[in-house]
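Hi all, long-time lurker, first post. I run a small reading group and we've been trying to get comfortable going from sequence to structure in the token notation. Rather than ask abstract questions, I figured I'd post a concrete chain and ask someone more experienced to write out its structure so we can walk through it together at our next meeting. Sequence below, copied exactly:
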Amino acid sequence: MSEDLHAPGWDAIDAACRELYGDQEPAHWGTAIPWELGGPDPLRGVSAYDVGDYWHYVSYGMTELYEKESEIVDLSGWGFEFSFRLKKSGDAPPIWPVSLLQNLGRYVFGTGNVLEDGDYMPFNGPISAESETELVGGLFVDDPTLATRETENGEVAFRQLIAVTEEELFAAQRWNTHGVAALLREVGAEVTDLGRGSWTEDAAFASKLDAGWADEGSRTGISHISPLEVLPEGESWVIRVGALAVPMITAILQGRVPFDRPYMLGGDEARVLFTPGAPRVAMEELGLAVSLTPELCTALFEAVHPLRGRYPVPGLPLIFEVQPSEIRDHQGRVVRVVG
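-- Answer (accepted) --
Happy to help. Here is the structure in token form:
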């Protein structure tokens, strides 16, 4: 940055990268029209550093780069910048990760949902629209090499995006993001390789996933799904969901209720709260309340399948109605139907 421009946030990001890469001049993509002036891109820029076998992308713009504007004193902007590592496949860093990080920035700026350390996100399609990669989701964890920094605008952390397959994303939902991310780091998969398959097919890796889930249960306390409807039917209640959500719901329940933890499903117009306890189903102010014993939790897991149909839950006045789920690409075209 120009020495005449007061940019403590930008300078802090530069300093963090300089500690890793010295005086290397990175590739950099800037934004012509800032977001606050009506531009389409929330990030003011993205840099890519050459790390030998891979490129390391770092964003500028999730934090307050210049003057302090937010009323939250302890955090600079959203409190973090994006970090992303991509295996090399040529002499120059590709630009598609810049678009990916801008899209993630739009999500945060548009919804106000901060991507915290330990979050995960399905991308509903390949991480790169130009590739047939199996990587279709992301884990978000604090970058192990870019330390959190204090600036006059507040704290700046670096949130690393680790690209994952559908099976690895399910493992993070079923168990926890940090556990899966740690295992992926052990095998070098924190660096995105568009050509790789799922590490869940490796017996040793899968065994560690199962052991972690069996020992710790699931840390996913709430899942936002669509569709989600709750309807009365005689003396019973019907929970209507898409087939794609069923394996996640049943697996997480097994990692919550037996560990004496609640689990909530949240939709646009409905909520379902599962809690450990004596069998009970009732509509309450916050949504449908379902109490389960560990045995009923297992019965639900065995009864409900990710196929179109109606599935009564043994021992409860509860029916799961499963509808097919459509998987769409970046252009909105249906590429796969589940259920």
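A couple of things your group might point at:
The helical segments are 8-21, 96-111, 166-174, 177-186, 203-216, 246-254, 294-303.
The CA atoms of residues 4 and 245 lie 53 Å apart.
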